[in-house]
Recover the amino acids of this structure.
């Protein structure tokens, strides 16, 4: 699925192209209908932020397949748009950001085509959006900091050049700090700052069982290795896999916690 950050990056890219391409692409891929297009065109011609704000809302709320269709169109025609932008680095920076966001969503731009890296989960909800919502509604005192760490992991991946080690470090710290926060909430007397002790505490509190403890320990070890190329995976792919595993483990923990009676 195309998550919120990718949709915002798409909006920023479209705004760089100008009002006419923005409206044409939104209308072409049914993100807006004919009546909305006329109204939005009037708003974009006015001074202020009303028009762009409404265009962003349309992109954020549009169905996944319509946004995917629009992005696929852009991928195939990006070079023609680039000729119209001056200086070229403006186009390149916005395009690279969109590509990085898409990669986190499981898509890669390759030879003017959009390739699904993980086609089996293409229709799954974006894990960052789901995890952020779960953290925000958890009631944990640390939820703001945890969301910040998660966002930092995404930002590091999208940097130019990308900071793959930073991306993995931030998702590892997110998992670690979430587990510590849950341990302190469930068993304050037994809480510890050591990762192994934290997992034992969560198991003793019946939040996880022995096999889940081993799974969490394995993912933590995996993402603690840092970004490096392995057989069959480059650094970008390795980082994306590690980051996804870390975020999924965070989601597992927070959903288990939310389902349990709060002490």
């Amino acid at each position: 699925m195309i998550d919120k950050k990718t949709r915002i990056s798409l909006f920023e890219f479209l705004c760089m192209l100008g009002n006419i391409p923005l409206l044409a692409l939104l209308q072409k891929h049914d993100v807006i209908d004919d009546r909305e297009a006329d109204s939005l065109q009037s708003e974009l011609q006015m001074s202020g932020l009303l028009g762009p704000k409404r265009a962003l809302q349309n992109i954020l709320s549009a169905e996944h397949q319509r946004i995917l269709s629009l992005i696929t169109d852009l991928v195939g025609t990006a070079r023609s748009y680039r000729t119209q932008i001056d200086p070229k680095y403006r186009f390149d920076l916005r395009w690279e950001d969109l590509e990085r966001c898409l990669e986190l969503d499981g898509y890669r731009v390759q030879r003017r085509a959009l390739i699904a890296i993980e086609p089996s989960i293409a229709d799954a909800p974006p894990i960052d959006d789901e995890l952020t919502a779960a953290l925000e509604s958890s009631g944990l005192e640390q939820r703001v900091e945890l969301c910040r760490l998660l966002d930092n992991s995404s930002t590091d991946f999208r940097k130019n050049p990308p900071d793959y080690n930073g991306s993995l470090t931030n998702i590892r710290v997110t998992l670690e700090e979430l587990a510590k926060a849950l341990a302190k909430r469930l068993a304050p007397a037994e809480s510890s700052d050591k990762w192994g002790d934290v997992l034992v505490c969560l198991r003793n509190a019946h939040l996880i069982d022995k096999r889940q403890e081993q799974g969490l320990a394995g993912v933590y070890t995996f993402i603690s290795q840092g970004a490096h190329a392995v057989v069959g995976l480059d650094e970008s792919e390795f980082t994306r896999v590690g980051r996804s595993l870390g975020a999924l483990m965070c989601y597992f923990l927070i959903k288990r916690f939310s389902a349990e009676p709060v002490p």
Observations:
- The CA atoms of residues 238 and 251 lie 20 Å apart.
- The radius of gyration is 21 Å.
